[in-house]
Design brief:
Layout lengths: L14 E3 L1 H7 L5 H8 L5 E3 L23 H4 L8 H20 L5 H30 L5 H14 L14 H8 L3 H13 L14 H9 L15
Helix pairs in contact: 4-5, 4-8, 5-8
The chain binds flavin-adenine dinucleotide (FAD).
Protein name: FAD-binding domain-containing protein
Family: Belongs to the paxM FAD-dependent monooxygenase family.
Keywords: FAD, Flavoprotein, Monooxygenase, Oxidoreductase
Length: 231
Amino acid sequence: MVLNHYQGKPVDSVEEVSIEEVKEQYRGYDPRIKRVIDMIKQPISRWPLLVTGPLDSWSNREKNVVLMGDACHSMVNHMAQGAATSMEDGAFLAKCLGAVVDGKLSIANAVTVYEKARMPKASYKQQLSFLNGWLWNLPDGPAADARDRSMRGELEGQIRMRSANLYGDPITVLECYGYDVEAHATDAIAAWLNGGRPVRDATTTVERLEAEKVANWFLPEGHKFQIRPRI
Ligand SMILES: Cc1cc2nc3c(=O)[nH]c(=O)nc-3n(C[C@H](O)[C@H](O)[C@H](O)COP(=O)(O)OP(=O)(O)OC[C@H]3O[C@@H](n4cnc5c(N)ncnc54)[C@H](O)[C@@H]3O)c2cc1C
């Protein structure tokens, strides 16, 4: 069983914890939590939640060795995004290496496209995860009350534009869980081959990712917004 709480002192290695300390930490909680804690068997360990980076680079100078996953962007757990982000890295890099196999990119350029696109995304997830944990662990008081008020509408069945519950907040859900990594990779590769400029519709200037976000996600085949770049 994993229990999660905030404490002021940073933890940087696994520590042994006494059952008395755990009971003290969860004193005043719901009796059901206390009953669960009474069932804990020794030994109990405290694990640090470690964040890696943001690093300046994920690759070597020759751009033929590259990092992915926790090795370059371990994050705290509060958005359940560590493994998800690692798998996104794999999917993105696979698309870039596919372009190498197709003769469109060199390995060094494939690694560069991957790093340029994935580093900001991983950094975003790290920050989001940390901030969500910070919100969850606010001490009782005005800030926690404001957080709870902002979430209350969801319990009453309202659809809100914003919520402190990041698992339901429309902006965060779209950016974090609605992210299409393969579409992002396809666009990033196309932009690289287009001299670093995004590929746009020649008449309207709309980009494919924007068309996907706004309209194409719900439109049936044959009715989607078409991107026709100037040839
Ligand atoms: C309790 C817990 C709950 C989590 N819940 C979620 C969740 O709900 N959703 C989510 O998305 N993520 C979650 N995560 C995070 C997720 O597990 C990690 O982000 C993910 O496993 C990272 O994958 P990775 O392949 O980068 O690294 P790892 O899974 O750590 O894989 C690295 C591998 O390399 C091996 N290795 C290390 N050194 C060497 C060496 N010298 N030689 C050979 N092999 C080596 C290790 O043994 C390991 O198998 C959770 C993590 C924990 C601890």
